[in-house]
Amino acid sequence: MLSSVIAGLMRLPEWGLSTPVLVDWVEQALDLGITSFDHADIYGGYSVEAAFGAALASAPGLRQRLQIVTKCGIKLVSPARPGHAIKSYDCSRAHLLASVDESLRALRTDHIDLLLLHRPDLLMNPDEVADTFSHLRACGKVLAFGVSNHRGDQVALLHRRFPLQAHQLEFSVLQAQALDDGSLVQCQDLGLQAMAWSPLAGGRLFSPYDAQARRVLPVLEGLGAQHGVSPATLAYAWLMRHPARPRPVTGSGRIAALREAVAAMGLPLSAEDWYRVWQASTGHEVP
Amino acid sequence: MLSSVIAGLMRLPEWGLSTPVLVDWVEQALDLGITSFDHADIYGGYSVEAAFGAALASAPGLRQRLQIVTKCGIKLVSPARPGHAIKSYDCSRAHLLASVDESLRALRTDHIDLLLLHRPDLLMNPDEVADTFSHLRACGKVLAFGVSNHRGDQVALLHRRFPLQAHQLEFSVLQAQALDDGSLVQCQDLGLQAMAWSPLAGGRLFSPYDAQARRVLPVLEGLGAQHGVSPATLAYAWLMRHPARPRPVTGSGRIAALREAVAAMGLPLSAEDWYRVWQASTGHEVP
Amino acid sequence: MLSSVIAGLMRLPEWGLSTPVLVDWVEQALDLGITSFDHADIYGGYSVEAAFGAALASAPGLRQRLQIVTKCGIKLVSPARPGHAIKSYDCSRAHLLASVDESLRALRTDHIDLLLLHRPDLLMNPDEVADTFSHLRACGKVLAFGVSNHRGDQVALLHRRFPLQAHQLEFSVLQAQALDDGSLVQCQDLGLQAMAWSPLAGGRLFSPYDAQARRVLPVLEGLGAQHGVSPATLAYAWLMRHPARPRPVTGSGRIAALREAVAAMGLPLSAEDWYRVWQASTGHEVP
Questions:
Q1: What is the reported pTM?
Q2: Domain ranges of chain C
Q3: How many pairs of residues across A and B have Cβ atoms under 8 Å apart?
Q4: With an 8 Å Cβ cutoff, are C276 and B156 in contact?
Q5: Which of A105, C136, C264, C276 sits CB 3.0–4.6 Å from C236 for a disulfide?
Q6: Does the CB of A279 have a partner CB in chain C at under 8 Å?
Q7: Which residues of C are catalytic?
């Protein structure tokens, strides 16, 4: 359902694109095979979905050629939501239904392809969420459901009541806790589509002041040279090589950056080279 | 089966109540709707159950109006148990059967409503425990079973062999590890009745020398003022708001203190206010 | 299937035994009731299996009187494996099949009794492993399968696809993390045979410079004196007392050391004495 690389729109406001230029950007992404676009209601202070929706509205037929992922469940203090006094989480039925309706209106579409609970609401009633998801699916507003940034026990609690299809979590060669905490193993076990946010560690990979990056980047450069690709492409290939087949959610507005992610698809990284990168990341040999 | 607030008897020896006064105290608790009384064989150095039993024996009809929770499995070094050379745990069949018989004799009753394994015995044979529980239920000595202070994997090990009904764990606005370690999610998932000991963090909530308490107490006071209740009541309402519906086990002998717990029942704490307290507890916004 | 004590061959190269002397050593182990011998392809830099195989080949009938455990999945940098550029893990079908064939050839046998994945390969595809295990069992090359040093979620991931029979993990009175991390509980829960490597903590138990050993050893000596056995025997009895019934994998080439392990079988260590040792190990009473 999702493309192997997913374009993340979190930073759309920083890119300063007019609606026609955004349409063009989406078209270029589609040409690269990136058909999935990742949103959250809160991105840009509740503004990104509407900007994307304007692009969709101005380009007839565009909506059918792409999939929309969006998230809900975080309440941000924002002029756009004067009712929120503090930042908090909410996955009550009332909030989820209202949030989806807002997202559909902003995105100018009649359905969301994949809806994720953005953060684990400690007050989650899993039966209520399951019921709400069922309703949203039955009325065609949302096609599939998942979570983001949840602990394994929280995923399992909900999954046993409603079949989830995806877990979006932080995963990169510099931030690989998902390998240690069982998150990716759970994706394998339950058949959840893993999605990786911050696949380049938010740019830290290229920081000369980061000790871990200084270990990893030369290894990526060396392997990249062998394969004729950039170190960023190698970083994408490394994460996509995991058997949970994580799909990176890019963060950049540059088409060249998307191209670097797409170039990782099918790049034949050997298991040994995967461990070579992993060893540079942890700073030591495997035990 | 249990009342929403449970009266804990751990500190009974400190209250200095004669048997008639204790009967009166129990009657007052019952008048408040508190019908469940929490014991352990070891409380008061193996003395509390007997003191409570004396009250029951002196007041015909009292036993039928309340539920007794007690615990077993800790062996304390005590003049009352000269056979114990060190503090250790024991949930062997022989110890559980002997412990229940001692508790029944001390409590002057023919049945325990809920029996909990007090601490996880690392030497637990789950089949032996399941077998022992079945026997205790079949002969009517114990109506229901649970655990206290067990890790999730230990709960699951036993629950798969014998259906547990409750998990008593530490939980309060100042000590909320149960939110992080999956314990409360497990209660939700398996349908275990959560019980919360130290619901006011052993009084630490009111310590002027505790940095966390100094953050939390003003928030509880503010919200309490809005609802017309004490900060202690708000602390109870906060923990009872969790979807596992934890039942606080009080520690005080003052009826006024029990009343503060009971006042939390049904107090309409909003999710946002729950997070407001949580933020004060952790010292930071949610991520 | 396995004997209660398992003779580990990891250090065979240090013992400096000729083939006839090794045959004699194996015979003495068998006389003690130790019928299981623990290997890994990598032991001795890929040399131990072949040395053991030479002993088996020189003593007709010996193979049928013992069980061979071996491990695979670690790729070591070694003159014996010039293709390995770095230390890494590999449980791909190709590597497992090749590794088993190498082990069979080196051991001069037609079957391995128990094959363990030595370390968790982060790139493990559990369906591929399950498929490979099924194939190896079907063609009679391996009779049973397990893992070593895996996290609980990794064990479960594989076990749900292929029934594992054993988990070999580090466990001793000085290194008892397996009591805390749920590993032994999982062995109980899934019915996996627990095997304990470094059962004497690699000799640290007898180090005068180790604070933990200085607490534990006197307790073992005291209890050992009561039972008429050495402190090492008591250390074995302590670990074998756990309800997962871990089977120690010895490390020594001295028959007297094997005898100390065997002497622990059936030694009636009371639960209280088990906790006495445990208290010395942790340095504090149980909570």
A1: 0.97
A2: 6-164
A3: 51
A4: no
A5: C264
A6: yes
A7: 43
